[in-house]
Amino acid sequence: MTKRPVSRSRAGAPRQRASRSTKMNKKRVGRTRARSARLGIVDGLIFLLQIPYYLLRWLLRFVWRFVWRVGLIGVVIVTVAAGVQYSDLPEMSTLLDGRARGSVTLLDRNGAVFAWRGQQFGGVITEATVSEHLKHAILATEDKRFYRHFGLSPRGIVGAVWINVSEGRGPLSGHGGSTITQQVAKLLCLGVQHDPESGQSEVEFELECRRGTVWRKMKEAVYAIALELKYSKDEILTIYMNRAFLGAGSVGFEAASQRYFGISATAVDPAQAAMLAGLLVAPSRYAPTNNLERSQNRAATILRLMRDQGYLSEEQHQNAMGSPARLSATASARAGGYFADWVMSSGPNYFTRNTTEDVIIKTTLDTGLQSDVEAAVSEVFNREVRAGSQAQVAVVVMRPDGAVRAMVGGRKSQPLGAFNRATQALRQTGSSFKPFVYAAALDVGRSPGDIVLDQPFCMTVSGSGEWCPRNYSNEFLGRVTLTEAFKDSLNIPAVKISESVGRQQVHEVARKFGLHQELANGPALALGTAESTLIDMTGAYAGILSGGLRVTPYGMVELRLVGERAPVMERESGLGESVISSQSAAQLIWMMTQVIVDGTGRRAALPDGRPVAGKTGTTQAARDAWFIGFSADYVVGVWMGYDDNTPLTGVTGGGLPAEIWKETMLRIHDDALPKPLPLQNPSSERGTVIEPRDQLSSGFLESLLSNILGVERESLNSGPISGGGGDR
């Protein structure tokens, strides 16, 4: 058999194909391995990237499991705590009036309200009876989601914290994010009542109730939930409207509406409602009696909120913006602030300053006259006193029986609790004291025509040495009648008359006329070194006008409790016992008319010829200037000076005080017909010089001999002397 030779090309082909396949397989394997390597790297990277995700998911699951368990425990604790609070909550009606103190409403002589003191509560209003505008204003500004939450507003709390932190305050300082329910919890002080025996004042207790600590907020939240469980939303809103403090002593919206607008909270319009709701954020700052414009601006913000939340139409909004709320006439006037404070201080403490009852006091105040007096003071000061002067003034207007009709206690207008210079300032009286020296003399038989020597005079005072009184003019008029000495306010004759009558007699007359302060013991008593208040001095002059009777100034006519018809206290007159005879009083009144006709008080004369009488007074170095006088209808006292006793410049009692007195008299008499004064015109004959042996006391005789003979004699019962005053 013949063997065929194998071709290389044919024989080698399988080997070549096998080699290519192997190479390709190797390449595939390489590529696969490379791909696998790359995938492994990607998977590794993905795994690494997934680690935080899995950790975060695990952490969130852990936190969630922890939080919901803790939350559940917290809910249980809050529910139990709220349940405990719920069981202690009283009936809603007992929470509407929670005042610690009562109120005092002051009426003028015509029965109109002119002032309020204490914590005023106007009566209960409810969600159903209050004006819908007021209800909407409260909701719009305080808690627009009130009817949708359960007592707490997490959104409001978070928003308030964010605002506080962004404004640089602590998270709980400033905006509180409190719902109306939480505010009610705060108003109720979480159900804790003030204990007077704890040693903590009411103010301190209320500050404690308003603290914003975390623990306090937590307790407040629990109490708010209890309130939501116990009362309906309308009942919670009712409690809020009756307990909120709204400035000027007003507790509750009814009291505030009556205080500022003179109407019930059931009848307020949108503008008034917005102004009342605006008080909630800061009652004192936004009280319209403090700054009406600021209060109106705040109300404008509330009106915009009411419009934006659908409580007002655009037309209603524009009408309210165009006619902003204004104070009632009574609230605007704020008349008789000094007078109201005086009445409050003069009445029983348990019915005035510290009353726990609601009290109504009818007074003697005439608000028309009060306005007249304030206008008179302003006119004279604006016309005669330099701008920036710190000189003060006080004025009292009263009837002859002591009923005070008007009072100015200082230049500060419409005060509350300010220092009252008419009733609290003790000032030296100067020559305004001299009527009581002459009253004592007339009552022991002296006559307006009797003669006294006005010439250089000295006397030795035990413990003080020689004392020589001087007249204001440093001139001596020689022989003068008592009337001439009085109208020209001569000092030397006044001292001589006082010494002749006896200082004790002068003391007694002044004391019985109502000058309560301790009087000087020395001979300068006659020159008004004693101190007194303006109201006491005016009351003493009223006693002269009333025929020599003791007159006690009074402002309270009737005091009764709200709801009671029978008064607790009443007063009809301040007239008391006789101090000097009516004849002596009539003679003294005539002498006082001469002060204005032709004496130191000529600037007080009235142009219509109305019969008036009065007396000037200026103390040493002109630290005090007085003019006190009367017509048949009114007694008016005026004092001027500085609180720090700085001497007045160019002012005496016959100057600016007399002008203020005159301007006051013109205004308060207006068109009233002149009435004659109860005076007695003495004989025109001049008296003779008093014979020492027959008519002069030993004290006066010693003084006279000392002056004539130059012999110094010691005066008995003399004390230290301070200078007196005279007038021009």
Keywords:
728 residues, alpha+beta, five-stranded mixed β-sheet, five-stranded antiparallel β-sheet, 24 helices, 19 strands
> Based on DSSP secondary structure assignment, what is the total number of beta strands?
19
Distance from first to last alpha carbon: 180 Å
Give the overall pLDDT as a whole number. Answer: 85
Q: Specify the structural class.
A: alpha+beta
Strand content: 5-15%
Regions with little confidence, pLDDT below 50 for 5+ residues: 6-12, 690-724
Biggest beta sheet summary: 5 strands, mixed
Strand order of the largest sheet: 2-1-3-13-14
What does this structure look like?
By secondary structure, the protein is an alpha+beta fold. Helix content is 45%, strand content 11%. A 5-stranded mixed β-sheet has the order 2-1-3-13-14. The protein has a 5-stranded antiparallel β-sheet with strand order 5-4-18-17-16, with helices on both faces. Strands 9-8-19 form a 3-stranded mixed β-sheet. A hairpin with a 5-residue loop joins strand 1 and strand 2. Helix 11 runs antiparallel to helix 12, helix 15 (367-384) packs antiparallel against helix 22 (656-669) and helix 16 (434-443) packs across helix 21. The chain is elongated, with a radius of gyration of 44 Å. The relative contact order is 0.09. Residues 6-12 and 690-724 have low confidence and may be disordered.
SSE inventory with pairings:
Elements: H1 8-88, E1 103-107, E2 113-118, H2 132-142, H3 154-166, H4 180-187, H5 202-209, H6 214-230, H7 233-243, H8 253-261, H9 270-278, H10 283-286, H11 292-308, H12 314-322, H13 329-333, H14 337-346, E3 359-363, H15 367-384, E4 392-398, E5 404-408, E6 427-428, H16 434-443, E7 451-454, E8 459-461, E9 465-467, E10 478-481, H17 482-487, H18 491-501, H19 503-512, E11 531-532, H20 534-545, E12 549-551, E13 556-561, E14 569-570, E15 575-578, H21 582-598, E16 613-618, E17 624-630, E18 635-641, H22 656-669, H23 692-695, H24 698-709, E19 714-715
Helix pairs in contact: 1-6, 2-9, 2-11, 4-6, 4-7, 9-11, 11-12, 15-22, 16-18, 16-19, 16-21, 18-19, 18-24
